[in-house]
Amino acid sequence: MRKYEALGVIETQYFTCAVELLDHMCKTANVDFLASERYLGGGLVTVIVGGGIADVTRAVEAAQQLGQRLGNALKMALVITNPHPEILKFIPPVQQEQVKGQLSTAIESQAKQVKED
Question: What pLDDT is recorded for position 7?
Fold first, then answer.
C-alpha cells in the first residue's frame, strides 16, 4: 500500500452528496480516493482521500465550501497529517466494482424516491 503524507476524511448525510463532494475534491487537488463507507442505510457516508498535506488540505477545504452550498449536508471534515502506517491497515481498498455498484444503487433509490413523490 502506498504511503500518504495526509489523509482527508469527510462525512456527509447522503450518498449523492458524497459523490459530488468527492468529485469536487479530486478536481480541486491531486488526491487519491481511498475508501467509502455507508452507515444507517446510506444516511451517513464517509469518504477518505489521501495525498500530500497541501493537496489534502486544499481538497477538504473545497469540500467544506461546497458542503455549505449544498445545505449543510457535510457533517464532518478533517485532515490527518503524517498518518501512522498502521492506520492505513484499517482503510479498506476501494474496488472499482464496489464503487459502480454503490453508484447504481444510489441512482436507483433516488429514481424510486422521485417516482414516489
Answer: 94
Going by CATH, does the domain composed of 6-116 fall within 3.30.70.1710? yes
Shortest CA distance to 56 belongs to which of 74, 37, 38, 82? Answer: 82
Burial readout 26-43 (b: 16 or more C-beta within 10 A, e: otherwise): bebbebeebbbeeeeebe
Q: Which residues of the chain have pLDDT under 70?
A: 1, 40-42, 92-117
Find all residues with CB under 8 Å of 102, minimum gap 6, and list them.
15, 36, 38
What integer pLDDT is reported at residue 8 of this predicted model? Answer: 95
Query: Which residue type sits at 6?
Result: A
CA dist., res. 42 & res. 5, Å (int): 29
In the structure, how many helices (H) and strands (E) does the chain have? 4, 4
Domain parsing of the chain, residue ranges: 6-116
Phi and psi torsions of 2, nearest 5°: -70, 145
Owner of C-alpha cell 475534491: 25
Q: Which amino acid is at 37?
A: E
